[in-house]
Task: structure prediction
Amino acid sequence: MKNEHMIRINEHISYIKASENPLSADIGIIEGEKFLWIFDLGADESAAEFLNGIKKRKNAVISHFHPDHMGNLEHVKLNEVYLGANTFKYAKLGNVVDEDIFIDDGIKLHIFPLPSSHAKGSLGLETGDYAFLGDATYATMKQGRVCYNSSVLKEEIAVLENLSAKYFLISHDERFIRSKEEVIAELKEIYKKRDPKESFIWI
Ligand SMILES: [Zn+2]
Result:
């Protein structure tokens, strides 16, 4: 993997695009004053090598426990790792985040718990106009069917509405950078389909 695989969003933010073979999530790279902040580590070996080649101390925020997001955890040399309690069960290392954290590293970072039907204990990372959300806006599978948990979706929409970022970065999405309004409008459309007598919204 070379530098050209890093796609620049602005002066401080870049990302490495997700791949399907090997299945590896988008990797967010934020250049702080003291640290390089990495949102999700992916599972692609060449991405791990690429990250290790960057000569700056690295902190990672892991969105959730799925292997395509944290597979490289043992391969990338890291200073600090931030993750949700459920992700900690799989990673067995790092700092558990159960409330909003605000960090100033030359740029301002906001790490926040994000209620998600896709994976319990998801985290997001907001900096300036951009918020990395991982897979948190996706559905989950139950009894072989795609669904959202309606109360979790309601909480998720509330958290997302409170963010000041204008753009949401959605892992595995071809567009990756999407407008906040558009993503929230889609989730609200799904929420409208709920049956008050049921816990799940079947898609
Ligand atoms: Zn996932």
Remarks:
- The pocket of zinc ion is lined by residues 64, 66, 118-119, 135 (CB under 6 Å).
- The chain has five helices and 18 strands.
- The radius of gyration is 16 Å.
